[in-house]
Amino acid sequence: MAKSIKKLLSLVMAVIMVLSLIPAVYADEEVTEPPAAPAYTTNAAGWVEIETGSQLNKWFYNKGDGQDYILVNATEAITAKLVLTADIKQNVTASVGSSGSDIEHNIILDLNGHTITATHASRIFALYKGSLTIMNSKDEGGLIGTGASNTGVVGSMLYAAYGSTLNLVNVNITLTENTFPNKGGGVIGGNEGATINIIDSVLDGGNTGHSTTGGVLHIE
User: Fold this and answer.
1) Are 199 and 168 in contact (CB under 8 A)?
2) Strand (E) positions, 22-160?
3) Alpha-carbon distance 96 to 38, whole Å?
4) Residue 41, Cα to own-chain centre: how many angstroms?
5) Which of 17, 22, 70, 220: CA 20 to 30 A from 192?
6) b/e string for 32-57 if b means 16 or more Cβ within 10 A?
7) More confident residue, 146 or 107
8) Up-side HSE of residue 99: CA atoms within 13 Å toward CB?
9) What confidence score (pLDDT) does residue 217 get?
């Protein structure tokens, strides 16, 4: 009899333990939220200093999991000034906003006499919402695309759409390899009501095998 009571008590305790875990599991599911955008610091002049491609990509969505990108995880519009402190040779695939978001960030990138060199054949900067200003406060430096592709549709080095605004000020932009049998491959492209302002800048390159949908400046 004592053994039966002991056994019954053990069973009751086990059931209680299992039941006590169930609310905790559901509670965790209910409060799960995406991680907050990483904090960032600025220098005395209010600029965020960037010296690597990885640091630059942290600001933008570059086809990753999006878990620690500043603009992607921001719940409110961000106005920020980024300044390069070194040449960047790692590939950059940076997007500002998306067609599915209403957040309009305002980002300024000062090349500060440095160069961003991308070896891939896809877009280096794409703008879907808000504004992106790429400027160069010095005469040296610029954007260089060296990627080439023999298949598929390849987007322009810089692209703007959905009513966004792309400003280029005193920037040298060079596409060194660009022969595509299909379409794409322009230096700058835009559609869907975007505004593109090009001021005191040089665009070089844009050879394409499909002249009706490529070239240096292509507006759909």
Assistant:
1) yes
2) 48-50, 79-84, 94-96, 106-110, 115-118, 125-127, 131-135, 142-145, 153-154, 158-160
3) 16
4) 19
5) 70
6) eeeeebeeeeeeeeebbebeebebbb
7) 107
8) 7
9) 77
Tell me which residue has tokens 């390849």: 154
pLDDT of residue 27: 45
Residue 148, pLDDT above cutoff 70: no
Give the whole-angstrom CA distance, residue 131 versus residue 163: 9
Helix (H) or strand (E) holding 123: none
Q: What is the mean pLDDT of the chain?
A: 79
H-helix or E-strand spanning residue 181: none
Positive or negative: CA dihedral 133, 155, 141, 94: positive
Asked whether residue 14 carries a pLDDT value surpassing 90, the answer given is: no
Token output for 76: 């409110």
